[in-house]
Specification:
Layout lengths: L4 E4 L4 H8 L7 E5 L11 H7 L8 E7 L3 H7 L6 E5 L3 H11 L2 E7 L3 H4 L11 E5 L23 E3 L17 E4 L12 H11 L3
Parallel strand pairs: 1-2, 1-8, 2-3, 3-4, 4-5, 5-6, 6-7, 7-8
Length: 205
């Protein structure tokens, strides 16, 4: 079981370059690829240019909500290590993984225990299971105690309005942590000082 930090919703070169050059870099950076409702969405041509960089051992993740074949064809040669899939059934997930030879993070949105156990449908297909809130781009919370029965041996990630000051409480938890909204200013833009605080705290995990 691996632990780690993911910074999601990066959309500009200044922020990306800061993260890539940080002495305590995250394990993953996520880019909103096709969900136009999100303020963090990156248009395709801008995305191509943005992620055409030296990743320095950081894994790049394409965040996709029910992607069409056309979307997948457009991004298949971009600099991604994982596709993070929302609203994609197990059969389609397996098809995407096989066709594009890419690692998969299956995102399961949680409000109750019945939502959590859906991970069993994906555990043999996906490389990581992400448990997120129902809020998608709205950074809503859910009860993390619902995950208590998820196996420790499974590579899993948690998202949903996690705050920087919550990080120390995850020290003994067996999952990766995904932050986005907590790293933004009042205008919804990524805040370098908050990212710095997160990465320095996460180095102690």
């Amino acid at each position: 079981m691996k632990k780690g930090i993911k910074i999601c919703g990066v959309s500009d070169p200044k922020t990306l370059n800061y993260i890539l050059s940080h002495p305590n870099p995250p394990n993953f950076i996520g880019f909103i690829t096709n969900y136009t409702k999100s303020k963090r969405f990156v248009e395709h041509e801008k995305l191509k240019e943005l992620i055409n960089v030296n990743k320095r051992d950081i894994k790049f993740i394409s965040v996709l909500v029910d992607p069409t074949d056309n979307t997948l064809e457009k991004i298949k040669n971009l600099n991604f290590d994982y596709y993070q899939l929302y609203d994609v059934n197990p059969e389609r997930t397996e098809e995407i993984k096989s066709k594009y030879k890419i690692k998969i993070i299956t995102a399961i949105t949680v409000s109750n225990k019945d939502d959590v156990i859906k991970y069993k449908d994906y555990s043999d297909i996906s490389d990581v299971i992400l448990f997120d809130s129902k809020g998608y781009h709205k950074s809503e919370s859910f009860d993390h105690n619902l995950l208590n029965e998820v196996p420790d041996k499974m590579d899993k990630m948690i998202a949903g309005n996690i705050q920087i000051d919550d990080i120390p409480s995850f020290k003994n938890k067996n999952f990766m942590i995904d932050l986005s909204g907590a790293l933004e200013d009042e205008n919804g833009k990524k805040d370098i000082s908050k990212i710095d605080k997160l990465l320095n705290l996460s180095a102690k995990l």
